[in-house]
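quick one, two chains, predict together pls
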Amino acid sequence: MYTREAHPGEHLSAHGDFEAKLAAARRLRDELGITRPILVDDHAGSVHTAFGLLPNMSWVLGRGGTILYKAMWTSPERIAGFLARQAAQPSGLAYAPFFTEQLELRRRDAAAFQQGLERNGPRAVGEFAHAERIWAERARATRRLDDS
Amino acid sequence: MRHIRCRPPTPLRGVAYYGSRVSAYNYERFDAYVESGQDEREFASFPNMLHAGERAPDGELTRLDGGSVRLSELWRRQGVVLEFGSYT
């Protein structure tokens, strides 16, 4: 599902209107070779908002729209593993679903992410660096509170 | 000419302020979006909303290959794997 631009820059700015969003989605499809169906949210991000606004979350919905899996980030391996377990699950009156919650790890590929920012433009690179300083200061402020 | 200082406009419901620009959703500067704390709020809210077992929100989307579709039309007959993202 195509959302707002997470890291706008000189080469791809925030969508000024829905047509710009469609054009950006086409760029994703054509330049990165995405073959899965792409659905484009409206300009205001209505569906993105309803699902929580995170930039790269993933969801598995069962027939009827039941949420089976939700994740802050997307891991193809985790989703594949979940789908395999779902397919292998027995069915019948003797079985009932139950809720679980877990933390997962994701590998952060800093080099690939930096390449992505550079592709968006120097402003995207600079703004992310600034954001990292903001996060670092927040973490220091939290530690100061914890220590006091 | 006399300089007149103006108060910033009253925040509109559903609209976030990032720096000096009003943005309902499509922020222009990632650092301003982070500085506003909106990223922190969104990540903090995620674990506490829409849980497994509940029904997902519905909505209308535009198919890049043409036409439009509601999520409920997709999940009516089969499950759906949904990944959110953008070019950047």
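The CA atoms of residues 4 and 14 of chain A lie 7 Å apart.
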